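Notes from the 1:1 (GR / supervisor)

We went over the backlog. Supervisor wanted to see one worked example end to end before approving the batch request, so GR pasted a single chain during the call. The sequence is below; no edits were made to it. Supervisor asked that the structure be written out right there so they could see what the output format looks like.
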Amino acid sequence: MKKSILLIIFIGFSNIMLGQLYEIGVSLGGSNYVGDIGRTNYIYPNKPAGAAFFKYNWNPKIALRATYSYLPIEGNDLDADTDFRVTRGLSFTNTIHELAIGLEYNFYDYNLSESDKTWTPYILLELAAFNSKYVVSENAPNQYVFDNKNSFAIPFGVGIKSKLVGSWAISLESRFRYTFDDDIDYTTDTIQSLNFGSNNSDWYMFTGVSLIYTFGRPPCYTNGL
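Structure output shown during the call:
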């Protein structure tokens, strides 16, 4: 009897695993930042960036998603739209490495195996941790010592995806990250030459195109929202 129960559980679990649809993909596009230096456009990709992700389609409306992103950022006051910043003339570069987990919510049912469900707009709701450089000290005028630190961000995003051919799909999305830090542009009140910041937290963003490969048997979805 015990062996029969274990066999039923194993078969049921195997069917669930095989019956779901999985996706892997890569994103290529651009990143940008909004803070105390340079432009203040939230969608203005000015540095090449990329990402890789894995998704588990819980049902036709919801996919669970994990993403690694490589996001160089820069700011230059000469590109700003205010006279104060242009005259000030500050600039910086930094590189963000981010891990994000969360869910992708489709506005329409999405299923590549059904011809009338092969595209949808969607939103992203995630939690993100990121690594970036910050200034530790100033050894000599304009000669700074840097270190790396880990921080958290509140991420959200929007996109649209569609079947491309066979098991391949394509998407266009923008992701926005509100950080709890004001120093990814190196501003700090402990070094006079870098004490140019406000009390507002910095943002960083990614906008790009994703190529997605779908695999697994035709889905037997969990009942969803």
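Supervisor's comment: Confidence is low (pLDDT under 50) at residues 1-20.
Batch request approved.
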